[in-house]
Amino acid sequence: MSYVKEQLEKVMEKNPGQPEFQQAVQEILTSLESVIERNPQYEKAGILERITEPERQIIFRVPWIDDAGKVQVNRGFRIQFNSAIGPYKGGLRFHPTVNLSIVNFLGFEQIFKNALTGLPIGGGKGGADFDPRGKSDREVMAFCQSFMTELYRHIGPNVDVPAGDIGVGAREIGYLFGQYKKIRNAYENGVLTGKGMSYGGSLIRPEATGFGAVYFAKEVLEHCGESLEGKTVAVSGFGNVAWGTASKMEELGAKVVTVSGPNGYVYDPDGVTGEKVDYLLEMRASGRDNVKDYADKFGVQFFEGKKPWEQKVDIIMPCATQNEVTLEDAKQIVKNGVKYYIEVSNMPTTNEALEYLKEKKLILAPSKAVNAGGVAVSALEMSQNSMRYGWSAEEVDTKLQDIMVNIHKQACDAAQRYGLGYDLFAGANIAGFERVADAMLAQGII
Ligand code: 2IT
């Protein structure tokens, strides 16, 4: 049995009941076979044993009092997965589905994503099974303060730098930072990213994941001799990522024609453009979590209980959450003659669906490369915080574009080096892995 297969089996055995983590490890490790074969030093140094085992996992109680005066308890997590190339870096997710498997999968993917940015950031992830939906501002603040009262001892600007993810935006980051500052009695704003502009945030951070995804899509289409001009795009979700994607697509002459929520999607043949892009933010801020509001406001169709993947478009870009595209969805996508499948949310495709799309020869791009613009601009926020100086929006945007072009090139080159053609999934995994593995080799068995 190959070293990769052997280690894959070990990970499965050691992490029962963690299907998402197992799925992420399987997708990444299986694409590393030829790298491991050509570089026996990785096996000799036990790189796969070590890279699949988090350096540290913290699970903690988060007690808080709701508006009715009742004590509530949530479970908090921070996974410090790998610090070979920099302090742990990755988001916090507040969502009822958060558990150890989810944070482990996100933390594991984050190692490779962060390496691809070329910036000095290791991999980490965290969150809680807290549901911000329907909570008052005071309840969210109470929760965030309690969460930070434990988390502060594990993080720091040179240790571990959390940010937002699903359910954690500027409001939550503000409350988290306030509590960190109070406990530490020091103004270390490099401890969190995604901050508001009044206390050390970076311009373009809110847009970065969506903008970066579109810059990456542009590279993919150009590689295939096409351009974004005139293309139609199906997007899921209606958060920051869908918003940034819609606005940059419009700027580059393409049209996002769907957005979705938990109970269905809207189809807007004229495109999510102009004031409709801004309305996504309003809809999110309302806390209603209901995209039917968009359909009602702009007089377009709402498809209850359906996913946007049934629409005939040129480009599919899942922007919501993990495993939102199943084998059944993939079959519909192929039937519709879609050419480009560009993941944006973390691990949006089941491994079965991914195999099917590969088999059917769609042009595929992996989220860990496509959505890396978000964490890349987070790393730029850290740089600005340590310089005590902020760049202009144009400066950040130019750096973001360079980073995305470079990620595409690295993934492309790595796949080429291993004779895999234009396989961005394998290429991204290989390029990210090589950077981290070489740093781990240099630093000895730790
Ligand atoms: O999945 C991700 O890369 C994020 N949620 C952003 C992480 C970050 O540190 O900005």
Short description:
The chain is built from 18 helices and twelve strands. It has helices spanning 3-14, 19-30, 33-38, 40-44, 47-51, 100-116, 137-151, 170-184, 205-223, 240-251, 275-285, 292-298, 327-335, 351-359, 367-370, 372-387, 393-417, 424-442, and strands at residues 56-65, 71-82, 88-94, 122-128, 160-163, 232-235, 255-261, 264-267, 301-304, 315-317, 340-342, 363-365. The two termini are 26 Å apart.
Description:
With about 450 residues, this protein is of the alpha/beta class. It is built from 18 helices and twelve strands. The protein has helices at about 5-15, 20-30, 35-40, 40-45, 45-50, 100-115, 135-150, 170-185, 205-225, 240-250, 275-285, 290-300, 325-335, 350-360, 365-370, 370-385, 395-415, 425-440, and strands spanning about 55-65, 70-80, 90-95, 120-130, 160-165, 230-235, 255-260, 265, 300-305, 315, 340, 365. The strands form two sheets. A seven-stranded mixed β-sheet has the order 9-8-7-6-10-11-12. Strands 1-2-4-3-5 form a five-stranded mixed β-sheet. The protein is globular and about 55 Å long. The model has no long low-confidence stretch (mean pLDDT about 100). The site of (2Z)-2-iminopentanedioic acid has 11 residues, from strand 3 and helix 16.
